[in-house]
């Protein structure tokens, strides 16, 4: 695949098209815990905003520009609207308008989006030229059109578990998965959710049923790109990390 994109922290950036792609945020998780009487000393909304602003500032330093922001679904956590969740989402979308016009903030429907908020349209998928964006839990015939070269999705919350050779220390890291399926280049973006690393794809995941539009057996042939503290590291094929 000719690399016309940048793995920018937990986001994906297309510099020529000025598109920033953000995976599952699950805003509202923290107020949900509070409503259940669980005290949690963490500000999910503030942390997410700070992380995104840091990424966009780094993009600007590299003389690039963000004109469009695409949220790959599961912007919200609760399946209905939990108290406090609507306000968090409104505040977050207003925050994004510092960097892109309202009409250029594209919201895709994830499996957690059962209702639309205010006048914000949630799309099943979004296509721009040779790029197709969707959440990844459901497929649509349009994304397999012959003009589509790259499909970008979230939903899986991909991560891998890395361990030292004596298998004493194990640690989970968010990652991108990049590979091919049905003659399309596929990029699976990690979740932006700061509280949970995600699904450890190299520890028994291969025995689980298919969780996305990409069969688990095919995912094992995808390349893993692990998010380090300040760098992204290539780790080869997922199947080699068992």
Which structural traits does this protein have?
single chain, 242 residues, alpha/beta, Purple Acid Phosphatase, chain A, domain 2, 6-stranded mixed β-sheet, 15 strands
Number of strands: 15
Shape: globular
Strand/helix succession = EEEHHEHEEEEEEEEEHEE
Helix content: 10-25%
Give the count of structural domains. Answer: 1
Describe what this molecule looks like in 3D.
The protein has 242 residues and is α/β, with parallel strands linked by helices. It has four helices and 15 strands. The strands form two sheets. Strands 7, 8, 9, 10, 11, 12, 13, 14 and 15 form a nine-stranded mixed β-sheet that branches. A six-stranded mixed β-sheet has the order 1-2-3-4-5-6. A hairpin with a 6-residue loop joins strand 10 and strand 11. The model has no long low-confidence stretch (mean pLDDT 86).
Secondary-structure map:
Blueprint: E1 6-8, E2 11-14, E3 19-22, H1 29-35, H2 44-61, E4 68-71, H3 85-96, E5 105-108, E6 122-123, E7 125-128, E8 131-134, E9 150-153, E10 158-163, E11 170-181, E12 184-188, E13 199-200, H4 216-219, E14 223-227, E15 232-237
Parallel strand pairs: 3-4, 4-5, 5-6, 8-9, 9-12, 10-13
Antiparallel strand pairs: 1-2, 2-3, 7-8, 10-11, 11-12, 11-14, 14-15
């Amino acid at each position: 695949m000719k690399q016309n994109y940048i793995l920018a922290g937990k986001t994906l950036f297309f510099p020529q098209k000025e598109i920033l792609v953000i995976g599952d945020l699950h805003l509202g998780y923290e107020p949900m815990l509070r409503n259940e009487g669980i005290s949690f000393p963490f500000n999910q909304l503030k942390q997410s905003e700070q992380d995104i602003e840091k990424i966009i500032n780094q993009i600007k330093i590299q003389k690039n520009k963000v004109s469009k922001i695409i949220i790959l679904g599961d912007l919200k956590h609760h399946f209905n609207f939990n108290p406090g969740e609507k306000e968090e989402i409104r505040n977050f979308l207003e925050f994004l308008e510092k960097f892109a016009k309202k009409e250029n903030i594209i919201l895709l429907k994830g499996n957690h989006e059962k209702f639309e908020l205010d006048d914000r349209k949630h799309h099943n998928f979004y296509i721009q030229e040779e790029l197709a964006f969707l959440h990844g839990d459901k497929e649509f015939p349009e994304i397999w059109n012959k003009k589509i070269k790259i499909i970008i999705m979230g939903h899986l919350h991909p991560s891998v578990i890395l361990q030292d050779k004596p298998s004493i220390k194990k640690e989970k890291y968010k990652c991108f998965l990049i590979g091919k399926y049905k003659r399309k280049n596929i990029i699976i973006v990690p979740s932006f959710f700061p509280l949970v690393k995600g699904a450890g794809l190299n520890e028994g995941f291969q025995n689980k049923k298919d969780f996305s539009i990409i069969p688990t057996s095919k995912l094992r042939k995808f390349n893993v790109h692990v998010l380090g503290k300040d760098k992204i590291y290539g780790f080869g094929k997922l199947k080699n990390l068992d």
